[in-house]
Every structure is written in structure tokens, then in C-alpha cells.
Model the fold of this input.
Amino acid sequence: MQQAATALRTGREALFGDEQVGAIQEDVNLNAHRFFVQMGWSVLSVDTHAVPNAYLLRGEITPCRSYRQKANLYEIREGDLIPGSKERDKDGKEVWGSYIRYAYHEAERLVALESRAERKTGLVEITALNSDLGGQVYRKVNLNELFFPDWPKLPEKTSDVIAALEIRIAELKAAQPVDMPDFYLPVIFAVGDQLIEAARRADFIQRDLLTYTHTCLKLTPKDEGFKRAYDSVDYEMLARTGIPQVHAAEIQTAQALEKLSERQDQNSLKDLVEVMKAKIEQDGQIIQLLLSERQPAKATRQPKE
Done:
């Protein structure tokens, strides 16, 4: 008879086994900066003041750093209160205090929020900078100007940003910048690759969102998910992707016919022919877009990546 010897286990061990889920490694530097970028929006707001001003500009590599948070004393955990940070209210009672919100925790929260979001924003962490050397490169090299010589001006379309980055990285590999230490280059090229991936991610997300928007625009008012017109967010995505508006061809045709009714001459007829040619081309693009749609005719949900 074989007797199985079962050691007593804690509840955490029974649930997670040998992996201590949620535990923080002792060698993690909670104050070490983390770095993020987004390529799809002129300005993207984020849910933390660990990022300066709580927003990221398009294409700008932005640090996430520890910061001091003021809160009610009852909200601050024991041991987290910064010594000497207590403040009194107008009645003279010590009510307020401050504690540190660490870069590590705030960055992990941003990553988790983007991962769980049904409607992605395109926020990407530049993990190539997550080291002492990476932090040094960020401090010593203006990465934004290095990768975008016309900084802060970027191409309007994301596809053009990708092409410009590929060309720039090829230039840097062919001719190393003056006074650039050799040991910086692997980090810089890794950052460049991640910027390209961030741009591709933004392009994919915005094309997916526009597919859903175009589905909603083609519904009738009685259908769930009906959308009457583009909003400001849609217009920015149209500019970033280069996708034509769903009714663009019809609008151009109407304008041409209006011109023709006003002026019955050869130039007007020529303009009409050119517009009709453009309409045929755009209709072809829209048909391909419709064929690629994954949403049902009746839109009921946001697209997923």
C-alpha cells in the first residue's frame, strides 16, 4: 500500500503553485523610469500623472516616473506616508499627507489598462529603454530628433511615418552619427524597431475602428449602432489612415453636377469626367473595404484587435 505524503500548503500555494503571483521581485527598481509612445493621435490622454501632464504627443517618447501624490491621511497606507508631509486643514487638524506613486506600478497599470481595453488606443511601451543603459541613452540622446529630423513635424499618414522611420534607421546604420558611442547603437536600433511596431499597431487599430464606423454610417436610424456622421475622432483616423470617407465619391459627384448646371461649357464637362473617374476609383476602394469588414450588417459591438 502506497501512502501519498501531502505537505500542508497555504491558500496562495494551492491557487498559484510555486509561482508567487503578484509578488514584486526584490531587484526591481520601483523608481526606474519607463517609456511610452503612441503614433495614432495628436494628443492621447492617459490615466496617470506619472506621465508629464497626463498625455502623450504623437510620436514623442515620453517617460513614466515616480511622483508625489497628496491624499487624505486615512487613504495612505501605514508606512507609505512621506515624513514631514502632513498638512493641516483650515480648522488646524492634520488631514492631508503625501506618498510616492512609483513609476513601476504606474507603468504596469498603463500596460494592463491597454491590454484589457476593448477599444485600444495604441499605447506602446518602449521596453528597449528599460535598463540602466537605456536610461542613459534617453538622457544623452534626443531620440525624437534623431528618428524624426523634422521634429516635431511628422507625416500626417501613419504609413508615411513607417516609411520615414525605415529610411532613417537605414541611414543611421549606414552612417553612424558623430560622437555617438558604439555601445549606444544596439539600444537605438531596438528603439527604432519598436517605434515602427507602434506605428503599425496604431494603423491597424484605427483601420479597424474606421471599419466599424463605416458599418454604423451605413445603418438606418432605427438600427442599433446607427451613426449619423463622422465626429472629430473619425476625421483624425481618416487623415492617419488615408481611407476615403464612405460617402466621399457621392459628394464629389454632386459638386461636379452643380458646377455643370451653372456652366454649360467644355471645361465643365471635362471636370465632370475627371470627377467621375475619381468616383470609380474610390468606389473600388470602398468595395474592397466592405469586403474586408468583419462586422455584421447590424453593428452591436466595438471592434477588437
